[in-house]
Amino acid sequence: MTGGSCCGTFSGDFREFDGDAVFAERRQMILSTGSIYRRLMEEYKDYAEIDVVDPRNLPYLIPRLIRDTRKYKVPIWESLRTIFGYRLPTIICDGRIIATGNQMDWHFIYKRLRDQITV
Fold first, then answer.
1. Which tens digits make up the pLDDT trace of 99-115?
2. DSSP character at residue 97
3. Choosing a second label site near 29 at 20 to 30 A (CA), which of 3, 6, 49, 86?
């Protein structure tokens, strides 16, 4: 299982400029991704390898996605979507996109993962 988000915090909190949060839209994304990560760890830590990958780390991310799509025999069009079509944040399980972009609702993700993983 792989997840990605970016624009982390500085010194434990987000910076402000003239009283407004810098990267405010990213802050909500990071917080929701962290919440989802904690819930996934609680539920699947004994059954799955869970990685959080900075999407800017393309030398790691792209080969990992290619390897996973081959390993789990993902059909070619779905593989291409996984490798080139993800948006931030994204949750990928066994080479398949589970949730991406604005689909970061825990209940939606949980249902998709339950359909994908047999524990």
1. 887 767 778 888 888 78
2. E
3. 49
